[in-house]
Design a protein that fits this description.
The protein is of the alpha/beta class. The protein has two domains: about 120 residues, Aspartate Aminotransferase, domain 1; about 230 residues, Type I PLP-dependent aspartate aminotransferase-like (Major domain) (Aspartate Aminotransferase, domain 2). The chain contains 13 helices and 13 strands. α2 crosses α10. It binds pyridoxal-5'-phosphate. The site of pyridoxal-5'-phosphate (PLP) has 13 residues, from α4.
Length: about 400
Amino acid sequence: MFESLHALPADPILGLSVAYQKDGNPNKVDLGVGVYKTETGETPIMKAVALAQRQRIDTETTKTYVSSAGDAGFNDKLAKLVFGAENPVLARQCTVTTPGGTGALRMAAELIKRCHPGATVWVTNPTWANHTALFQDAGLVVKSYRYFDKDNSCVDFAGMMEALKAIPKGDVVLLHACCHNPSGADLSQEQWKAFAELAKEKGFTPLLDMAYQGFGVGLEEDAFGPRYLAETLPELLLTTSGSKNFGMYRERVGALTMVAENGTRAEILSSVIQNVARCIYSMPPVHGAAIIDIILGSNELSALWQQELAEMRGRIHDLRALLVEKLHARQDQKDFSFITRQYGMFSFLGISPEQVRRLKEEFSVYMVDSSRMNLAGINHQNADYLADAIVKVL
Ligand SMILES: Cc1ncc(COP(=O)(O)O)c(C=O)c1O
């Protein structure tokens, strides 16, 4: 049976990580894989997570099965974190625990197929590399719409709206709720409102991928798009991830939220999505979900978590400003100020694949071929070296 298979290339971003590990240059800089790093290059366990985990271990009494919806406490609290605790939308939504944000996206794909097997999923151009592969692997057609204006390093909103006008009822439009990966270019509140109007008029269903709540402007501000769309549209799909904002990458915790026209439909969705989960993995892992449930259920741990999240967010903002300052101090050929107007861990530096190759081969500076940088890989020790290297390849 297996003789028909051929080896597949490794994921390019993970491949970059391997190449970085092997590089003996003491000045090497890793701006590749999308994990948060401290000034000393570590991705530590957040204090709130460590405390909640200890509490979980001390109080857990059983490892018996849970339902296909996962951890009920987590599902409830996560929906409140996204929409706000008093939002009437809570009465017409259903949230289930999933294995990470990726698992939530795959569950969304399976749900879309059950509702509308011929649906096309429209993704931003560019988007997180795994979006296209994941939806295609689930058997859906994936197409992209204009999103990022490379010349001006911002959202091409007019182009995006023009493209979306042609999308038929029943198709799904995926948008990043905040901290667009890979560009860092997000919609303004006015743009979210205009997008909602168009979705209402055209009848397509938005699917919001929120992998970075709290990494952009703040927990509340980053949720503006999901809240506005949920409040103004009858239906919405939303995926979230605990990998980044709780730093629980390897615990695989995320959620799929389905907003329906009314509570009765939300209950039907709950039964359908649990049936989907039962057929794929039966039930999600809940260790990470239980930890988040403990944090969000405790005023003290919530405050600590929010403080740690604010520190991560602040550090990324500062690094954006630092890089721009260093680059502008060395040259005036290219304006990099757009980097400070973008959000989350990523931005395109805006150089060619050839220049990216030179950065890697001549200076051991690692970033994705598209020139997407993970800004969290910068620190006060490597910033000058990095800026010198970039200016040399410009
Ligand atoms: C836009 C986007 N969506 C989803 C994910 C998946 O996150 P997880 O690690 O929770 O599966 C990522 C992770 O990098 C991401 O950047």
